[in-house]
Write a structure and sequence with these properties.
The structure holds two protein chains of two kinds. Chain A is mainly β. Chain A has two helices and twelve strands, in the order αβββββαβββββββ. Chain A has one domain: Jelly Rolls (Sandwich), CATH 2.60.120. Chain A is elongated. Chain B is α+β, with helices and mostly antiparallel strands. Chain B folds into three domains: 431 residues, no CATH class; 100 residues; 121 residues. In chain B, 50% of the residues lie in helices and 14% in strands. In chain B, strands 3, 5, 6, 7, 9, 10, 11 and 12 form an eight-stranded antiparallel β-sheet that branches. In chain B, strands 2-1-13-15-14 form a five-stranded mixed β-sheet. Classes of the chains: A mainly beta, B alpha+beta. The interface between A and B is medium-sized, with 28 and 40 residues.
Chain lengths: 170, 734
């Protein structure tokens, strides 16, 4: 009995001091689709998930949307360095007659990074390098496009401009 | 009104039961004390016995109201029949009329203030969070359960056992009133000491100095344990003085029990045991070993249960401390070092302002009162034997203050300091009276408000008689006074039974029945917090890639060894460790064995394919730390990829491989580093990791650093706001 104990007790101590080992665990399935990317075209099926406010779905077509007074979108930015913002938009003839030239101001996370003028009606494009300090990497970033003038549509809705696509490209 | 009766009954029944046990102990040991000290010492000594009995009931899963009721009734019946025929107690010398009047007046005035504050709904920070949070859980479970996510459950809980006994009848306020009973007992013990040993004036003044001290008042009316520890420490000292005079061997039994009880109440009371042993060994005229063993044995009865509980459940007798000696998965070594450092310094560059802060400004969590600036005068008491004994007690019970400079940690030393100070001034009655008068004036709540800033100065502010008598409903009072009470109630409404909530800050746990995992209270909590931070903080994101390349060769295992040394605070971490043969990753096989040094318990987090989780060393980097994979059969490997965050700037790594002979050889002395971009799925991966750990909800204050990201990116996280209260939000993980 004493002999057994003499073997057992040190063995117990040794086993309690030994570094534990573990098998690999169940593998996490990291193949989730990204719910929100860095660029959206209004024709995308999931365009709604990018819109925060003032860009309601268009009953006539899915390829563009009327923007109101304070349209806001959100984008997931992976890395902020060397990112270019690009927007495809239009000033509608009917609206232009009421408002005249419109200035659009672009803000990301409340920081202004660009401005452009719609001096005539029709489609236009705006693109600019974004200062990396304004973007939050690995997170959702809030884009605001502020028109300096708006006008009421036929049904009284406040209309600013037409947005076709917007987002950030590496 | 029924509530008030339950509260008063819960407290009175607990105090009576403890006193009965103490009186029965004294009777069994034929210890005869003077009448004025008999009940006080019986109450304190009996509390140790009642605490042990409740511990045993918890261990047996019998912590029930009915069992407590019959335990108490049994003790009271035995007391009535056994003790009523005891020999008459010797009468003490009469108190002088002036002394009696001064003591009675101030004791009554402050006593009324304390009584109603203790009886009001409990809203102290630690009392409402963990002291009674633990107690309410024990009552719900009818005993102990192994909980590895709350370091406070690993502390000795001797006083919580008394809280539990009272809580079963009168809930929170009954428990707080038990502590208040010790607050009343302490000055009475000091007064008795003064009467017995012929220093009545010093006894009266010293007792009142302690009783009226603002920090003693607020602590004593709350469900804390510092005043109880002070009372037990002083009762131990008192009994040692009686033993020294009378040399009665049987006195060593309550002496040992009280020494052990001091440890059981609070770890910082551990010095009571060596103090009692040393005192007895030093002063025992003969049979020194026998007397020493008697004290040691009785102390062990109260100490051992808590130590054993920790050994059995946490592999560390001193948990949550000494984790670098008794390594375990439950508390990180890094946390312990930080925790200890913060409480040793409160992040102050110098400790010189501490005496001023503890006595005057109260910025260390309350003030003992400005008159204690006179404490150095207590050294004059060294001229007398009694003074030397008191100052030794002050040194012993004041020593743990170095480990936590919060003002309340001075309370156990305060009775000794106060008595020694008054002993030093004993010849100057006018000065003593003046000191007492100034102290009384400066300690009254309205005047404390007037002369002290509000910042961090924990103190009584009102006399809430209407709340104490429940004329103001408890719910209303708590909503007004306890900022996180509403969140506790919201959690109870929203979180399903058995649900786990992760919290960045303590919640009033005693007012919710759901399990709260506060981030800093366990290794698991810290790991969960880290998992939440990884997708948010740029430096924590697993964007760094370190690749070791070497000629393909069959290996029995590989290990990444950390080589950087020096005094660097960085913690080593690995999000994923991947092995390759050529361009193909080797699938992780269940026969592989993974380990790490230090902290092997989380190593699976580096092999789970979840980018939001990571293995961390949870200690500052040292050369020789490693992460290791052993294969069941040799595998050809040509590349090892370490994916990790950048928050480990000084880390240096080399790769070793185990060849078929079992020898470890260098495969690559340094990796090639590259970077990748963050991915949108990391937040969702983080929440999935929390769900796999059983966490379904997160609560955080809206001003917290993570709050804005939760709001802005709730869709990416997979979170839904489940409720808000008073600047805090509760999120459900979808």
């Amino acid at each position: 009995m004493a002999q057994r104990l003499a073997v057992l007790i040190p063995a117990l101590f040794l086993s309690s001091c030994a570094t534990p080992t573990f098998p690999p665990p169940r593998q996490y399935d990291f193949t989730l689709p990204s719910p929100i990317g860095s660029f959206v075209n209004m024709i995308y099926a999931d365009a709604d998930s990018y819109v925060v406010r003032d860009l309601p779905p268009n009953a006539v077509t899915k390829s563009w949307r009327w923007a109101g007074a304070h349209p806001q979108l959100r984008f997931f930015i992976e890395a902020p360095n060397g990112v270019t913002f690009s927007a495809d938009y239009a000033c509608a003839e009917t609206l232009f007659r009421k408002t005249g030239p419109i200035t659009l101001t672009f803000l990301i996370n409340d920081g202004k990074f660009g401005q452009t003028n719609c001096s005539h009606s029709g489609r236009a494009q705006f693109s600019v390098k974004v200062p990396p300090g304004l973007l939050i990497p690995g997170a959702l970033n809030l884009l605001r496009i502020e028109p300096d003038k708006t006008a009421a549509g036929e049904d009284g809705t406040v209309l600013g401009f037409i947005l076709i696509s917007a987002g950030f490209l590496s | 009104m029924r509530e008030v009766i339950y509260i008063l009954f819960g407290c009175a029944f607990t105090v009576a039961t403890a006193t009965a046990f103490g009186a029965l102990l004294f009777r069994a040991l034929r210890i005869t004390l003077r009448k004025h000290e008999h009940y006080l010492l019986a109450f304190v000594s009996g509390s140790a016995i009642l605490s042990l009995i409740v511990f045993l009931l918890c261990a047996a899963g019998q912590a029930r109201k009915g069992v407590f009721l019959w335990t108490g009734i049994g003790a009271l019946i035995a007391w009535y029949f056994k003790v009523r025929n005891s020999p008459a107690h010797a009468m003490p010398p009469k108190l002088s009329r002036t002394g009696m009047a001064v003591f009675a007046l101030l004791f009554t005035v402050f006593g009324v203030l304390y009584f109603f504050n203790a009886m009001a709904p409990e809203f102290s920070p630690d009392g409402s969070a963990y002291h009674l949070g633990i107690v309410s859980r024990y009552l719900k479970w009818h005993g102990f359960q192994r909980v590895t996510t709350d370091l406070y459950m690993n502390l000795s809980q001797g006083f919580e056992m008394l809280f539990l006994f009272a809580f079963a009848f009168g809930r929170h306020s009954a428990s707080a009133m038990v502590h208040c009973a010790f607050l009343f007992t302490l000055p009475l013990l000091m007064l008795s000491y003064g009467r017995r040993f012929g220093v009545e004036r010093a006894g009266i003044c010293g007792a009142l100095l302690v009783f009226m001290s603002p920090i003693v008042g607020i602590d004593g009316i709350s469900a804390y344990n510092d005043v109880a520890l002070a009372a037990v420490a002083f009762a131990l000292f008192y009994l040692l003085q009686i033993w020294r005079e009378e040399r009665e061997f049987n006195l060593l039994v309550p002496i040992g029990l009280l020494a052990g009880f001091a440890f059981a109440i609070k770890y910082t009371g551990f010095l009571a045991v060596p103090y009692a042993l040393g005192y007895v060994a030093w002063h025992a005229p003969r049979q020194r070993l026998r007397q020493f063993m008697a004290v040691a044995g009785c102390a062990a009865i109260l100490v051992t249960p808590w130590v054993l509980k920790n050994v059995m459940w946490f592999g560390n007798p001193a948990s949550p401390f000494l984790n670098s000696v008794f390594r375990n998965p439950y508390i990180h070594v890094y946390f312990e070092h930080e925790y200890s450092r913060i409480f040793r310094t409160y992040n102050m560059p110098s400790l010189w302002p501490v005496p001023w802060m503890a006595t005057v400004t109260g910025a260390l969590g309350g003030t003992i009162g400005p008159v204690f600036l006179l404490a150095p005068l207590a050294l004059l008491a060294l001229r007398k034997r009694m003074g030397r004994d008191l100052l030794l007690g002050a040194v012993i019970f004041g020593a743990p203050y170095a480990a936590n400079i919060g003002t309340r940690f001075l309370i156990p030393a305060l009775p000794f300091i106060a008595l020694a100070l008054m002993l030093a001034l004993d010849g100057a009655a006018f000065v003593m009276g003046l000191v007492l008068l100034v102290h009384a004036a400066l300690s009254w709540p309205r005047l404390v408000d007037w002369h002290l800033p509000d910042d961090g100065n924990w103190r009584l502010t009102t006399l809430p008689a209407r709340a104490a008598l429940r004329i103001v409903p408890e719910e209303k009072f708590l909503h007004e006074h306890l900022s996180n009470y509403g969140m506790a109630r919201l959690i109870d409404r929203v979180v399903p039974e058995g649900g786990h909530v992760f919290a960045f800050n303590p919640v009033a746990e005693s007012y919710t029945t759901r399990d709260i995992i506060v981030y800093y209270q366990s290794a698991m909590g810290e790991s969960i917090k880290d998992t939440i931070l990884v997708p948010q903080l740029t430096d924590f994101m697993p964007t760094a890639r370190f690749e070791f390349q070497f000629p393909p060769k069959p290996l029995q295992g590989v290990r990444v060894v950390q080589t950087a040394g020096g005094n660097v605070p960085d913690i080593w971490s690995i999000s994923e460790l991947r092995l390759f043969k050529g361009p193909l990753e080797l699938p992780r096989d269940s026969s592989w064995r993974l380990t790490a040094h230090p902290y092997p318990w989380d190593i699976q987090l580096a092999f789970d394919n979840n980018p939001a989780t990571r293995w961390r060393s949870w200690e500052s980097i040292k050369p020789g730390m490693f992460v290791e994979v052993e294969f069941s059969r040799p595998l050809v490997v040509s590349r090892v990829l370490v994916e990790c965050g950048h928050d480990q700037y000084q880390v240096r790594m080399r790769l070793e491989g185990r060849d078929e002979s079992g020898k470890w050889n260098l495969l690559a002395s340094a990796p090639i580093g590259t970077d990748v971009s963050p991915k949108p799925g990391w937040r969702r991966a983080s929440m999935d990791a929390l769900k796999s750990r059983g966490v379904g909800f997160i609560v955080l204050e809206d001003v917290h650093g993570q709050a804005a990201d939760f709001r802005l990116n709730s869709e990416l996280w997979g979170l839904k706001l489940a409720g808000q209260w008073n600047g805090s939000s509760l999120y459900r993980i979808l």
